[in-house]
Amino acid sequence: MAAGTPQNSAFEWLAANANLDDYTDETKLARYALATFHYSTDGPTSWDPTIRDNGWLTDIPECEWASTANGRCTDGIYPSLTVDFVGVSGQLPPEVGMLTGLSRLSVRSNGAGSSTLSGSLPSSIGSLTDMVTIRLNDNEIGGTLPTAIGLMTSLRVLLLSGNSIGGNIPSEIGLIDGNT
User: What is the pTM assigned to this prediction?
Assistant: First the structure.
């Protein structure tokens, strides 16, 4: 990991945690993925302090880190990464794909003139097979939809309006069964 990257910052934060040896492998992965998300989206500087300073990157369980949905873990699984309208900027990191129990990803912005996500959707998003809802409205996400989106067989809501996603809709999206 290169110094100064969100991944390195997340690794250093996790490695310095006094409780690291007490965490399960799943907890370590979730905390690393969430910390990488935090650093990749300018959490330390651009997020609204009411969210940023309410548990994020602390020793309290990641299920208690603030979000705009106040989602809680179920059986140790982090189900909802929801930080709408709080100044999230930067890029959605590939590590979000490590949150395999995620069923909701919502990072909506206020649109032009506000902090927004940019870059493209990582193909690792396809590993989120329990995902039901993705809401990334009014950001500056570009590129094309990854073909791995077809692996998200539980997906029911995909809101990407107000972005700059181009190209064709991948045929793999037809693999999503709307009846399950």
Answer: 0.92
